[in-house]
Amino acid sequence: MLIIHALSQSSWANCTSHYGENYVQSEGFIHCSDVHTFHKVAPNFADVQEEMLLLFIETDLVKSPIKWEDLDGCGTPKLKLTSKAKKSKLSFTTMKFPP
């Protein structure tokens, strides 16, 4: 299964062999969406001026637990990747928001 994480291009450029260590340290997880619900979070990036990247993470390649939570009661569970991810296990494409 593929999950998606949106981030700024500079965040990706500034990480070395692993991505997300700052998120895991500050929040305890990396926010992700599945491919069917990403359209619901995409509008959150409408005002971002910097070019954004979408990371497509293959869950079979991730060794850390992935949690599904619906904390806001909207019926759409949010994915939480609970540890940093090895860059070599991630694929990405460049997208500008808004598209």
Distance between the termini: 24 Å
The CATH class assignment is Alpha Beta
Please give the number of β-strands: 8
Order of helices and strands: EHEHEHEEEEE
Q: In order across it, which strands form the biggest sheet?
A: 5-6-3-1-4-8
**Which architecture name does CATH use?**
Alpha-Beta Barrel
Question: Number of helix segments?
Answer: 3
Number of domains: 1
CATH-level-4 superfamily name: Protein of unknown function DUF952
Give me the secondary-structure category: alpha+beta
Radius of gyration: 13 Å
Largest sheet: 6 strands, antiparallel
Task: Show unreliable segments.
Answer: none
Topology-level CATH name: ADP-ribosylation fold
Overall mean pLDDT: 76
Strand content: 35-45%
Written overview of the protein:
The protein has 99 residues and is α+β, with helices and mostly antiparallel strands. The protein has three helices and eight strands, in the order E-H-E-H-E-H-E-E-E-E-E. The strands form two sheets. A six-stranded antiparallel beta sheet has the order 5-6-3-1-4-8. The chain has a two-stranded antiparallel ribbon with strand order 2-7. The two termini are 24 Å apart.
Summarize the SSE layout with pairings.
Blueprint: E1 2-8, H1 9-14, E2 18-19, H2 21-27, E3 30-34, H3 38-41, E4 52-58, E5 66-69, E6 78-81, E7 85-86, E8 90-95
Antiparallel strand pairs: 1-3, 1-4, 2-7, 3-6, 4-8, 5-6
In short:
With 99 residues, this protein is an alpha+beta fold.
Defining traits:
globular, alpha+beta, six-stranded antiparallel beta sheet, 99 residues
